[in-house]
Write a structure and sequence with these properties.
Helix content of chain A: 40-55%
CATH superfamily of the largest domain in chain B: MetI-like
CATH topology of the largest domain in chain A: D-Maltodextrin-Binding Protein, domain 2
Oligomer: heterodimer
CATH superfamily of the largest domain in chain A: Periplasmic binding protein-like II
Number of strands of chain B: 2
Number of helices of chain B: 15
Number of strands of chain A: 11
Largest interface: A-B, 49 and 39 residues
Distance between the termini of chain B: 56 Å
Mean pLDDT of chain B: 88
Largest sheet of chain A: 6 strands, mixed
Helix content of chain B: over 70%
Structural class of chain A: alpha+beta
CATH class of the largest domain in chain A: Alpha Beta
Number of domains of chain A: 2
CATH class of the largest domain in chain B: Mainly Alpha
CATH architecture of the largest domain in chain B: Orthogonal Bundle
Number of domains of chain B: 2
Radius of gyration of chain B: 28 Å
Largest sheet of chain B: 2 strands, antiparallel
CATH architecture of the largest domain in chain A: 3-Layer(aba) Sandwich
Distance between the termini of chain A: 67 Å
Strand content of chain A: 5-15%
Mean pLDDT of chain A: 92
Order of helices and strands of chain B: HHHEEHHHHHHHHHHHH
Shape of chain B: flat
Low-confidence stretches of chain A: none
Low-confidence stretches of chain B: none
């Protein structure tokens, strides 16, 4: 019996205290003890089961998502850590990060896209040592990934993968018309599209939106580079309507011509979002489109007969060469975490080559290399379509090219300014010159705010 | 018992003391139980301050700052408002918002009135039709918008399929959400489809409250159907029309989901309305100060519309 209760009982027996007082004091002692024990239990539980909040990215490649989740759970079981996993998607990723950071409640760590280390730097830990350790053991980062993840000598994200992709072509339709695989957009893609399409059957030669979407951003950005232009000059200053005005004008005109002059794109293409070209291609309504490997994954996973009729080739180029932007996904660890070592351990665990190979195999081309050693893996030769996806990554450049990767360049992408520029011509009725001028003003405004550094 | 001078003097001193402390003034002004009254309203005052006044005040403050994600705000005064005023994309978003709002509300008013008139007439299965017409209003906005995204799809959408393949009205499909002439009309159509049952059901409730004798009297006096509608129905539901329009104007002006899901404000900013602009500014550009300024920018004009309509309504009631 508790000594305090014993004392009280003795006092009651001796008649020193009334029964009512005995009851009151006994209740206080008992209740206080119970509350104290509960608190101690909670503390003991917290010590034995550390909780880690991890945000993962939910890509369209569901088999890859499943394997990553399984690997994280495996790590948690091995380390006896409780993991609270949450998924961010293309549609809600930035919203979740902004809300969590502003509320002062970010996860311990998260899988981020290429924008994360720049945009959320104030809330992220410097993970340079871990990033260099992992990259060093894998032959170093590929040049495009190094330019994006190396933030003036510091790393705020540990490289993981980049979505492979390329130019998806219906090889069967090209063969039937005796058309060669295209190497440049103009004239190759235009001619290929005109020869193979049949609008009366709702089959279109090329399907690539310029609407506000990642697909539209990527296409317009690549076209600018292909024509020798860019939104940025070598020093990272706005160049849409200055340094590269002539090249950019040519690029816009070509992009718009695919819809208005050549008529090789389906009606409604300007209303497409990121999924529409996937759906149209898989429904057999497109001869060609640019897309990430998720389209190939979807066809293979759903046993779509078009998978066998599709060839994924290098993204076509233009007069100045053939360019494509590549963007690495990465692991970020937030400053607020109290479990830095566990977070780093989990990054090492999932980036372990055996586990990453398992993930790569399930992802059917989507888990593109960010490290040199991963680009040399025999996996990339197991399917002819992987070759185009890999080569696209290897020659990839970074957002902001030919200048540095910068916060301003990221915001231009995030605000869909290049898509809007083309959209203002196609839908808004502006001239290419006026649209270029308008977009340049927006880029300059962003540059003034964000500056030319990451 | 007569009051003595000493008693009077004592009462006067006590009164003076009370007046000095202001208690008499407060009691007279707020009533004898004002302390209890304060106690009773305290919870709601605290709630309003915590959940409305503080967030609103903080939003006003943030709108006057340069606020980026993860960094502390820097006060810049009215810079964000000035910048927005001269921003071409913001100006277009304002114009688009008015087109979207008044276009939608106008059509909803007509359709809602039609719906109410049909449902007050002698038709078969009236309850059934009332239920059916309420479905768009009951369905979640996101579900409706996603369905329309598919319906409008240029290649795989059911609308083009019907117009081109089944009824052969058009030789080729239309890019409903991708062309300047149809994008705004298409998003307005979805808002109208979703919102008109609210108009209809509200008007219907109002019409049911109009005594049948008024119609009979009007008919005896030789009033035509149109005259009966104009001089009996409309005055009878006038207040309801104003309230419904007022509410719908606010809801439509702030409608985010339909436009964002269907077009994200594209193509080329054709359907960019203020809620989507604000959202893009907050989560795309991640400039929170400017985003909040954009959200608050239209508050005064909207408040003006509300005040005018409310006054108009009160005046009508007084008459």
């Amino acid at each position: 019996m508790d000594s305090r209760l014993k004392d009280l009982a003795e006092k009651l027996d001796a008649g020193l205290i009334a029964r009512r007082e005995f009851l009151r004091k006994a209740a206080v002692v008992t209740g206080g003890t119970a509350v104290g024990l509960k608190a101690l239990e909670g503390m003991a539980g917290a010590q034995s089961q550390t909780k880690l909040r991890v945000w993962l990215f939910k890509s369209f490649v569901t088999a890859g998502n499943d394997i990553l989740a399984k690997q994280v759970e495996g790590w948690a079981a091995e380390r006896k850590v409780q993991v609270e996993m949450d998924w961010a998607t293309f549609g809600d990723r930035e919203q979740k990060f902004v809300a969590a950071i502003e509320a002062g409640n970010p996860p311990d760590m998260a899988e981020m896209n290429y924008q994360g280390p720049t945009r959320y730097k104030p809330a992220l830990r410097d993970v340079s040592k871990l990033a260099k350790d992992i990259a060093g053991a894998r032959g170093g980062l590929l040049p495009y990934a190094e330019r994006i993840l190396n933030n003036n000598g510091q790393y705020f994200g540990v490289g993981r993968l980049a979505f492979g992709g390329g130019f998806f072509v219906r090889k069967d339709l090209l063969d039937a018309k005796g058309v060669k695989l295209p190497k440049v957009y103009d004239p190759d893609v235009v001619e290929m599209a005109k020869k193979t399409q049949d609008p009366s059957k709702d089959l279109w030669g090329f399907g690539q939106t310029l609407n506000r979407s990642d697909d539209g951003n990527g296409f317009m950005q690549n076209i600018l580079w292909n024509y020798g232009g860019s939104a940025w000059d070598k020093d990272g200053k706005p160049a849409l309507n200055t340094t590269f005005q002539k090249q950019n004008l040519e690029a816009i005109k070509f992009a718009v011509d695919t819809i208005q002059k050549h008529k090789i794109q389906p009606p409604g293409v300007m209303g497409w979002t990121d999924v529409h070209n996937n759906e149209a291609y898989m429904a057999g309504k497109l001869v060609s489109t640019n897309n990430g490997a998720s389209l190939y994954y979807a066809m293979v996973a759903k046993k779509n007969p078009l998978a066998e009729k599709t060839q994924v080739i290098l993204t076509p180029g233009g007069p100045a060469g053939s360019f494509v932007g590549s963007t690495p996904y990465n692991w970020g660890i937030f400053q607020k975490t109290k479990h830095v070592e566990l977070c780093e351990d989990l990054v090492r665990w999932v980036e372990d080559e055996k586990r990453f190979d398992e993930y790569t195999k399930a992802s059917i081309g989507q888990a593109g290399a960010v490290y040199k050693a991963r680009a040399d893996k025999p996996y990339w030769k197991t399917d002819p379509n992987f070759e185009g996806m890999l080569q696209n990554l290897l020659r990839g450049v970074w957002v902001g090219y030919p200048g540095p990767f910068s916060a301003a360049a990221v915001e231009v992408q995030a605000q869909y300014i290049l898509c809007d520029m083309a959209g203002r011509v196609v839908v808004g009725g502006l001239s290419a010159e006026a649209a270029l001028k308008e977009a340049h003003a927006r880029v300059e405004e962003i540059y003034k705010i964000r500056g030319g550094k990451a | 018992m007569p009051t003595t001078a000493a008693q009077l003097s004592g009462k006067s001193a006590a009164l003076e003391q009370q007046v000095r402390t202001g208690r008499v003034g407060l009691k007279r002004w707020l009533g004898p139980d004002y302390r209890l009254g304060f106690l009773f309203v305290l919870p709601i005052v605290v709630l309003v301050l915590a959940l409305v006044a503080y967030p609103f005040g903080y939003a006003v403050y943030l709108s006057m700052t340069r606020k980026y994600v993860g960094l502390p705000p820097v006060f810049v005064g009215f810079e964000n408002y000035v910048k927005l005023t001269f921003d071409g994309f913001f100006q277009r978003a304002v114009v688009n918002s008015f087109v979207f709002t008044f276009g939608s509300v106008g059509i909803k008013l007509l359709l809602g009135m039609g719906m109410a008139l049909v449902l007050t007439s002698q038709i078969r299965f009236r309850s059934f039709w009332t239920g059916v017409l309420l479905i768009p209003w009951v369905a979640p906005t996101v579900v409706s918008a996603l369905n329309f995204l598919w319906i409008y799809d240029g290649s795989l959408g059911v609308l083009n399929y019907l117009l081109v393949k089944v009824f052969r009205i058009l030789p080729q499909g239309v890019g409903w959400l991708s062309e300047a002439g149809t994008a705004m009309a298409s998003v307005i159509a979805v808002n109208v489809w979703r919102g008109f049952p609210f108009f209809g059901i509200s008007f219907l409730a109002g019409m049911k409250g109009i005594p049948g004798e008024l119609y009979e009297a009007a008919a005896v006096d030789g009033a035509t159907v149109v005259q009966r509608f104009r001089h009996v129905t409309m005055p009878g539901i006038r207040n309801i029309v104003i309230i419904v329009m007022l509410l719908s104007t606010i809801w439509t002006f702030n409608d985010f989901a339909i436009v964002y899901i269907l077009t994200k404000g594209g193509p080329g900013g054709t359907t960019m309305v203020l809620p989507v602009f604000t959202y893009e500014m907050a989560f795309g550009a991640q400039r929170l100060g400017e985003a909040i300024a954009a959200a608050l920018y239209m508050l005064p004009p909207l408040a003006f519309v509300i005040i005018v309509l409310a006054r108009h309504m009160r005046r009508g009631r007084a008459k």
